[in-house]
Fold this protein.
Amino acid sequence: MKGTHLGEFQEIVLLVILSLDDNAYGVTIKQEIMEKVNRGISRGALHTALTRLEEKGFITSEQGESHPDRGGRKKRYYTVTNRGIAALHGAKEIRDQFWGKIPRLKLHPGYDS
Amino acid sequence: MKNPVNLPPSLYRKLFQKFCRKELYYELQGDLLEEFSLNVEELGPTKARWIYKKEVLKMLRPSVIKKFKNSNKYYNNTAMFRNYTKVAFRSLSKNKLFTFINVTGLAIGMSVGLLIVNLVFDAVQFDQFHENKERIHRVTSKPVQVGFRWNEGAAAPNILGEKMAEEVPGIEAVAKIRRWFFGNLKLNDNSIYANGVYADENFFKVFSFDLQQGNPATALTNPFSIILTETLAEKLMPEENLMGKVLSIPERGEYLVTGIVADPPKHSHFKFDALVSYSSVKPLEEQNILAEASTNWRDFSAGYVYFLLEKGQTLDNVQSWLNRMGQEAYADDENFFVNFDTQKLTQIVPGKNLNNQLGTEFPPLPLIILGAVAMMIVLSACFNYTNLSIARALRRSKEIGVRKIVGSSRRQIFNQFTIETVMVTVIAVFFSVFIFMVIKPLFISSIPRIDQVMQIENPPVLMVYFLLFAIFIGLIAGVFPALFFSKIKPLLALRSNASMKLFSHLNIRKVLIVVQFSISIFFLIAMTVVLKQYRFTMAFDMGFQQENILNMSLFGNDHERLINELEKIPEISAISASSMVVGSGSNRTLMLRNPVTNDSLFTNFISATPSYFDLHDIDVIAGSIYEPRQIGDNLSKMMVNVEFSRFHGYDSPQDILGEIFYVQGRPMTITGVIEDFNYQYIEEPIRSLILMESTNTMGFINMSIQGGDIVGTLEKIESAWKAVDEENDPSIKFLDTQLEEASGFLLIFTRVFGFLGLIAASIACLGLLGMAVFNAETRVKEIGIRKAVGASVSNLIMVLSKSFISLILISGVIGAFIGYLVLDKLILAEIHYRVGVGLFEMFIAMLILFTLAFIAVVSQTWRAAKRNPVESLRYE
């Protein structure tokens, strides 16, 4: 279904925003993704993701305070909406469903943990 | 490194700003910069800058970069512009009559507008040359007295200035000025008459007049120092340095030249030939050469107080101190106090209407009225343009239809027509500058004292303002037609019978015509009514002899010596000296105390020798005229008018004879009562008046002359004058001419109203002519059919003119109504002896305009009606 589909990167962004609680803005989100997910992303790519999420109504944003480090420009804080949380739950359920169907993890020969 | 360490590469920063969408830029650039500064700490500047560049380049994605809509419009701009101009030129040259009407109307209207632009341009430049203009203020005073109405004045007691300098914190300097310095400056055999002011040592601290020689701090410190302007010094003794020379001024002593100052700029609100040190005032007052005003808290006409605030100080301190002083200094009189106020230097001209101005005065009201009137006329010309353009919509609608179908946007059509209008106005402004050049000298010479404000030269920068004005007018005139044209629907426009539907804007056009004609009628009524008032004033019996009386200014000479000389001339039958020209309104007031009620109040006063009354044929009703004063006599007798005795509660003028009133504290016995006569302007009712022979206030010699040889008599008077005063030329005027001049403002009103009326009427008629032409042209077929069916020419003219005639009738009623209200209730209400606004004046005004309008309409409809129907119907 178009409009509510949650892409993989978008899902990560949503989770990061939730985990950052009320300190989620461009720079922190990007750092969190780079550190925790170990994935190099550009701010531009993050912007695209955030725009999509906002269009789908999964997040909202509001202007915050400015800082000299930012050349006096204001931050934009992002928060996940209820719809966003529902979408996250939906995605998790789908995964859990499948995880539940797998009786036990079979390790292929040659796999060493 | 080119950039400072803590800043990202500026090229990329700017690049990002260029392509990033405006609404995102703040957030994204902020994030990038914050990240950059974190990276500088963690990874070092080089790496951080590299990351920044990468990040910026990765921002090049559709969701971030600006949208470029309709980008082809940008590339095509110049070509389209050329096309618009070309089409505009073609359509203008194709419709020569309409172009002529538009350009003429706009040019005439704008020339009036330019006059006002020029006036405003000059007025706002006043006193801008003072370095500290933002911090310079002056004290104004409004005395409040029970039972007497005062106006706020620009003067303030000098003693207040002295106290102010001592008591009020936050003031850098107080400059006291005392006006009315005048006299003949003599050096060796040379002599010249000079006007100026007494100014204290702070003068150059407060004002930025350019002292070319001398020390600004000390030049005005010592008594009897004088500073001359360059021009005056040059006139007095050409090509010689006058510094350190001693000048003598008759009856005022000797003065040392301590400075030479550049002439005060044209845009200074007060001007002078010479400055005399303020410390000279005291000795002069002690010798009774000047009236005692410098220590007098009740002087509201001679002294001025200007002060310079310290930087960063507000007026609050000063104002509260002034409020206190206004009560405290007058505590001895419970019926009297003064409201002191402050006025910023740059708000003096143009500024409030105050009494006793030191120099140029230019109240904003005339500026507002003139501005409003000029705006009405300019708008009227704009209406014409709007009207005619929309009327022509019929012809241009096909062009617009085609343009739109080919792909023009609404905005492009709008631009096209705006460009066309601006072109017309720019052409018109060239003509209007010509008209302006012609009418400006007339304007300046016909309005007295406007030359103080308006300069005859036209600085080049003014032309820039003119062009801006023209473009502004073009936009006003063009916006409505441009909107209208751009709204035209292409399909409707291309359908052949669409023309009628385009006519839904007819009502607006009718309203515009009514407005134009109402304005014209108003001006024409104003002209006739004011002319009537002028005639009335001229014929008004003011209660004294006006014919064959000559008045000669004294210029500070002793009147008795002059009278002795003049008495030798046989043609002069009577001579008197007086302080004012009777009936010209420039009277003085003195403080008078009623001994019975003990009320003090200011009363009008004329100084006159006893022969004054006979000479002017003023009847003595009771008592007798005071005796001529002999040398050594104290001033103790005065005459009053009937109004005076009535005002002070005496039933009969007889009763007041012998009563003693106190004038400026001096007891004065009333010896006689004269009939009431209009010693002031005719605008004023006759008020209480006292007359006495006060020798040091004489300003004029009055002579009654006989015999036919006026030229010979004048020559004799001149030689008598030369015997007393060799340096100056005498100024001799006939009293009746002076009275005419005093009422001259009415003539000026007549001229101005007449001029404006003519302009408004001609613009309105041009517009009407255009509409009539258009109307006749669009109804060619209707006329043809009517004629073929059997209508006569007069019938057709009736049909075609009917709507116009009714419009003009409506505007006649509106204009007459407004004219009555404004003239009768506003302008004439200021005048005490006045005429009313009658039906006759309104009738005259309407007749003039109706005739003009009728000619415009009928000439066009007649042409259409005469046309052979075969020709008009054969078409197609």
